[in-house]
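Below is one such record:
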Amino acid sequence: MNQKFGKDLDPNLDPQKVLAGLATVIAVATLLYFAWSGFYTVREYERAVLLRWGKYYTTAEPGLNFKLPWIDERILVDCSERTLRLPWGTSEVAQRGSPLSVERENPDEMLILTGDLYAAVVEWNVIWRVAEPKDYALRLNQEEAESIINAVARSTMHRIVGDYAADEILTGKREEIALAALTELKANLEALQSGIMIVDLQLQRAIPPDRVKPAFDEVNASIQQRDKLINEARRERNQMLPLALASQDKSIREAEGYASRRKAEAEGEIAALLSKYQAYQKAPELTRRRLYLETMERVLGNSGPKVILDGSMPSPLPLLQLEKE
């Protein structure tokens, strides 16, 4: 048999060439295997966490990357934005500006106790993405991430809503509640080092339960009526205030004019008295007589007819009778 096998071989075949060919084939096969199992593509919304000997080595960016076969292990992490609809935990890729349509489950899951011990139906969206692929890949996975966000977000929302009264939650404080819940939720997830970043928190609905909705509608109608009356009062105030200010300004100007006039008159009277006093100092007797005559002239000027009698006349009766005739 060996002789037959030896006869089948080409006696001119060089063993060194055969070995070189085999080495070339093995090298090419090895290179092809390395290329097939070593190169990989990371899409634009992904990051690749590379483990070498089971430990974190690096994070690969989008594009064509290489890893060592048998030694390196890659974990692709989806870093696109996703939306978690709470309180049910329904998840889908975030589409800004488009509402999420999910099937309603148990309505009691939406009830949250308020600060004044009422219940409100609250729904909200949590938009999140992976910010630290290393922490996310080594600590969590997709299912665990959504469960953690669901638990932390629900506990955060329950605590925040518990600080507000029911009418504040259902009317004017929704944006404030959403902002407070977003800030606290970010802080809680950062403390867990989960690699998850909360992009936004949108408060979708905050309404009373069905059993108390009619009563709330009446309360809301009264609040709207109150606001309407307040707005009307403010409008009337804004209309009357300029008129009142104008009247006030006019009264102030009149008072200032009267004060100036009285001050000038008083100063004139003082100047006249000072002039008389100076004249009296220079000629007391003449000034006294002049003042007496001026005073009597003012007194008797408007007293009507006058009769001057002689002081030695015994009786003025005959004269008075003549005047009657």
